[in-house]
Amino acid sequence: MIGRAALLVALVLQAPKAEMTRVPLFDNDRAVSWKSIIPPHSESTLHRHDRFRTVIGIVGGDLTTIDPAGHKTVTHYEAGKSYWQEPMPAGATHKDVNETNATIELVVVENK
Length: 112
Fold this sequence. Notes:
Blueprint: H1 2-14, E1 21-27, E2 31-38, E3 53-59, E4 61-66, E5 72-77, E6 82-85, E7 95-97, E8 104-111
Antiparallel strand pairs: 1-2, 2-8, 3-6, 3-8, 4-5, 4-7
């Protein structure tokens, strides 16, 4: 019995971790859009947002952003609702983290 439990734990630990996915929707001279699929317990790399953008909740949830100093901000995205976001301050970066047990899906339309 202990052997089976150890094997199960080993298989779970070796299972590939789900990663965030960005699916391009359109890109023209005025805007670029993509769908972000954010699995449970996944995180992005550090990045920044230099442009104005609209974020639309497709499958809502609580998305945490964490800056390099470890400061956390949780944004609740409601399915079917849109959110206006301004560019980040100069030099600021963050990573997106889904600390929940549910997948979050967002459509982003970023002005050029």
